[in-house]
Amino acid sequence: GTTTIDAGILNISGAGQLNSGAYAAAIVDNGTFAYSSSAEQVLSGVISGSGALTQSGAGALVLDNATNTFSGNITVGGYLLATNNVAFNFGKSPTQGPLGNPATTNRTITVNSGGTLVFGMGNVFGDGGSTNAPAVSLIINQGGTVQTAAPIPAFPGNGGGDANVFGDIILNGGTFSTGNGYANSPNYQAA
User: Fold this and answer.
1) Handedness of CA 98, 175, 111, 18 (dihedral sign)
2) What is the per-residue pLDDT across 80-114, written as a single tens digit (0 to 9) for each?
3) Is 45 within 8 Å of 25 (Cβ atoms)?
């Protein structure tokens, strides 16, 4: 059934997993969903709510639902893969995607040292013709890495394609790379 976090933190640690690593039920996150496990976890059910998501474990956390609507901040210190076999597009679906609602004002996705955020598909928040810039800011700190349109052998994903529309990208010594190209960020800042 649905996992609900009304407040506080749900921490999956050690070698823990939800449903042996393949969890298809919904998650309502109004607190913090923290994944620090050494085991791989795929979340294919819808994640909603206003809560945060953190990934700090050695095991990959895969967000594999294009209709997630959660609006809390994301912090990555381990490996987080956002992918889905159905392309997601900010211009067409401005309030949902594997990383939740990109239209939430003052929302941040922060990738810290040792963290890797991978988009397994191109056109992450929109295509080149989109006129809607996401409100979410992407912050990549020293030792953090963001890869877009990256082919992932172990998981489904198209690879190829380009990054196209993002909101603010702030590089604090981190690395941002894309499989084919990049355009249309309203603000690009290297700090």
Assistant:
1) positive
2) 888 764 444 444 556 788 888 888 889 999 999 99
3) yes
Q: Residue 105: name the closest of 70, 65, 132, 135 by CA.
A: 135
Tokens at 111, concatenated: 């990738």
CA separation for the pair 38, 112 (Å, rounded) = 18
pTM of the predicted model, to two decimals? 0.85
Confirm if 25 and 3 have CB atoms less than 8 A apart.
yes
Computed on alpha carbons and rounded to an integer, the radius of gyration of the chain in Å comes to 15
* Nearest residue to 53 (alpha-carbon basis) of 110, 113, 6, 95: 110
The string of pLDDT tens digits covering residues 132-153 is 667 788 899 999 998 876 655 5
